[in-house]
UniProtKB/TrEMBL annotation:
One of its GO terms (cellular component) is cytosol. Transmembrane segments: none annotated. It comes from Azohydromonas caseinilytica. It catalyses: D-glyceraldehyde 3-phosphate + pyruvate + H(+) = 1-deoxy-D-xylulose 5-phosphate + CO2. It comes from the Bacteria. This is 1-deoxy-D-xylulose-5-phosphate synthase. Pathway: Metabolic intermediate biosynthesis; 1-deoxy-D-xylulose 5-phosphate biosynthesis; 1-deoxy-D-xylulose 5-phosphate from D-glyceraldehyde 3-phosphate and pyruvate: step 1/1. Residues 319-483 form the Transketolase-like pyrimidine-binding domain. Belongs to the transketolase family. DXPS subfamily. One of its GO terms (molecular function) is magnesium ion binding.
Amino acid sequence: MNAHPLLETINAPADLRRLSRAELKLLAHELRDFVLQSVSRTGGHLSSNLGTVELTIALHAVFDTPHDRLVWDVGHQTYPHKILTGRRERMGSLRQLGGISGFPRRDESEYDTFGTAHSSTSISAALGMALAAQLKGENRHAVAIIGDGAMTAGMAFEALNNAGVPHAGIPANMLVVLNDNDMSISPPVGALNKYLARLMSGKFYAAAREGAKSVLKNAPPLLELARRLEEHAKGMVIPGTIFEEFGFNYVGPIDGHDLDALIPTLENLRDKKGPQFLHVVTKKGYGYKLAEADPIAYHGPGKFDPALGLVKPATPPKPTFTQVFGQWLCDMAAADPRLVGITPAMREGSGMVEFHQRFPQRYFDVGIAEQHAVTFGAGLACEGLKPVVAIYSTFLQRGYDQLIHDVALQNLPVVFALDRAGLVGADGATHAGAYDIAFLRCIPNVSLLAPADEDECRTALTTAFRQQHPVAVRYPRGAGVGKPVQPGFAEWPWGKGEVRRRGQRIAILAFGTLLYPALEVGERLDATVANMRFIKPLDTALVAELARTHDAIVTVEEGCLPGGAGAAVMEALQAAGLDTPVLALGLPDEFIEHGDPAKLLALVGLDAAGIEQAVLKRFGPKPALVAPVQAAVNE
Ligand SMILES: Cc1ncc(C[n+]2csc(CCOP(=O)(O)OP(=O)(O)O)c2C)c(N)n1
Ligand SMILES: CC(=O)[C@@H](O)[C@H](O)COP(=O)(O)O
Ligand SMILES: [Mg+2]
């Protein structure tokens, strides 16, 4: 039986613009079911997408997309948009190798006007588009759709600050839609959230409802009703929201699941000049009871049966590196009262739920504010506390200047627990932790450690914590080889790697979890394998010793080749006057797409087979070297 007959007639937004309001409501019903069924088969972001079904339909119904520009913030809520813009049949390939992305991509569809995945960029981008249209004399609308979580970031406010005043006397014709579901991934934090909650509650919301009733008594036609309701509510009860202070015309809050409210309000705003702001209230997980009840669990689930929901696996899986970090954090916090933990809105993803429960005074969720997280940590460190900033490698990119200027320059003892280092899989290039080695090892005072397994992760964290300067520990998404983690607080000798296998001819220097495939290759080729542990300070004595005693060096890392650990080894050899040939293996100088992490590693030649092949190709099976030149390319 066809469960989505109306949806199947929609191959582009123009198709839905022909539907009546009643049909659009039916479409919303089918679309929500389609999203649920589809995500249950592929995994992906669910709660946010269930919450944006009506908003997506309304936006495409009112605006002339793709001529008008919709810019989705983060973009994890764009599955309804993808389905309505010609990608319904490709949803089965979502986030898989060769399939469509889980985020908007300009190269995927003309309806995806701006690539996103890191949050809080939408207002800036939409403002750019709006002003470009005005400068070029084009008549088009630009709409930014941003969540209440993403709205907390500095970047969003930088953009509001810019957009709210006319440029050269001309106001920006743009619309910001605030999709307020009172949730980030975790419950939202901060003063803005409290402010939005106040807008929604008490005197204000009651007055808005009264306004609605009085308009209803006169029973005008539906479109007029909604328009008058919106005008009425705005005029009567909102003397000046913060958004109006920024120069926007604020409207709302309105029910983001009610097409009868959304469509006329959007039509009204579409025809207004200058910066417009629409506050829409939605429910994360809307329409799927389990997700409504637990939007955190359904924020980004794997595959599941919609009838049963998420079920715990019968046998507990191997602990992830994130869990190892979370356990270490609690243990170290119990041992050292100076420890404080900081997360920029990633409590669950960074493994800090238990720490939050047990040490609420020492837990800081600062919102989606990576720059602030880093400098806030610096401030805490100035006063003798020991901050641990738990942050995904990709999101530390946001706090780079803060890391250099506020932490490293002052040599403050901040620990960076860099989760999701290396390829992350389904989220793809936007989330890959590909650059941290390159961008950290060039900063004076900063050290960088790369544990090879779960047990080493705990040791590396302790080693980092005991230093008096900034240290980052990088570890990947998911589980490693499953090495049992020893309790206690073992430490590494500072700056020392270890030789794990003595062989001949070739020495493989492994940085991080690729030690294990390197060991397999070592066995097969009878090569020496070193677990380097420290990217910075590099164990230059070990590097030199291995270079002197082997015909060739191979470096292996799950990070970008330019500027990476392999490059550090080559620099060390050059400084020591050694010309031992080096084959550096790592992530090539290109963005790696989404897909299964193991498949991706194989694709870039960083599984055991790929490493072996590259070594044989470069140095041949026996015994002489083919080409005594240094290379930093992934062959
Ligand atoms: C710069 C950055 N930091 C963190 C994240 C991780 N992240 C993705 S979605 C999200 C919550 C966003 O909340 P909101 O904007 O309210 O959207 P909702 O999930 O509620 O739909 C976070 C923290 C990110 N994508 N980008
Ligand atoms: C959209 C976003 O940034 C997060 O939801 C991210 O997808 C989470 O990634 P993890 O699943 O690795 O925590
Ligand atoms: Mg939200």
